[in-house]
């Protein structure tokens, strides 16, 4: 008969460690949204000014180079990526990089939907990166900066040629506001509000370099473009899109929430402070992993470990010896125990990833909550292990 294990005395003040939507900013309250322009047409002057405020704050906080444009687009990060793929790809060969499920999804879309002829795929298993040196400067590149479901990120942009002829299209939804992106090496970058700063869903962000704009104005794809993908009119960039004139109706309530998060980030000290917060959270979790025999990190190379979507593996020999279904059942048991205690919500590994845990360490998370979570992870592991022994 299983003996109940002693529960840790301290609980995280906020149990929301989901990798997306991520937890709200510290001190968030719905009262902070009282200024939202509800019931107003999004094309009115006051609403467009508010949309432009979000665009300008994004440009400022991300320290974008002059000439880079920012737009609010439909359908979250997925919509923003698809806009870039369908509008920009075609005139050159494409190198596709994938080392987790979302990158693999972009590979499938380019190959199976756009059906481009000249496509090369460089992939790697969960926990590793492909050989980045294989990428050609003469070809377009599509990649995720940070692999949300694997906990693996590119360490830098040194592998992207400064004098490249192709475009670099980057899904950065779990990297921006937490990692230093080398913008001069990137031409189309996407993210979503609900991932990076705890915003609400359905809104994507698309950032274009002058080189991407040049491609849009000089190349017309051979396939039909749905209305929500169109960024040009009569061969010229639709500049209004980058001034707050959105393609479809945005939620002004969600917009206000994003602006509140941006202003919080600005008040915290901007990008450098956000990166420091994510780094501190990741260090607290990694320090615990290094002192814990049963836990490991899916990303084995410290240089490529994410500081936002930290993916934990279970390295206990008895767990490793289990059949795949049993390993998934064991981790599901751990996740259920933690949720039932109100300690951690939504921290199971992604469905396509190896069985394990996934904990968001981005800037909206407080380090004290990570520190309080760690003893509970031990408790959940030992409790699940004890229950398994009793069942046997």
Structure characterization notes:
The chain folds into 2 domains: 30-266, Aspartate Aminotransferase, domain 2 (3-Layer(aba) Sandwich); 270-391, Aspartate Aminotransferase, domain 1 (Alpha-Beta Complex). It contains 10 helices and 14 strands. It has helices at residues 45-61, 76-88, 101-114, 193-196, 210-218, 252-268, 271-290, 317-320, 324-340, 367-391, and strands spanning 69-74, 94-98, 119-123, 140-144, 146-147, 152-153, 168-171, 188-192, 203-208, 232-233, 236-237, 295-297, 309-314, 357-360. The longest helix is centred in the last third of the chain and has 25 residues, at 367-391.
Topology summary:
Blueprint (H helix, E strand, L loop, with lengths): L44 H17 L7 E6 L1 H13 L5 E5 L2 H14 L4 E5 L16 E5 L1 E2 L4 E2 L14 E4 L16 E5 H4 L6 E6 L1 H9 L13 E2 L2 E2 L14 H17 L2 H20 L4 E3 L11 E6 L2 H4 L3 H17 L16 E4 L6 H25 L1
Parallel strand pairs: 2-3, 2-4, 4-7, 7-8
Antiparallel strand pairs: 1-9, 5-6, 8-9, 10-11, 12-13, 13-14
Helix pairs in contact: 1-6, 7-10, 9-10
Can you tag this structure with a few keywords?
2 domains, Aspartate Aminotransferase, domain 2, Aspartate Aminotransferase, domain 1, 36% helix, 392 residues, 10 helices
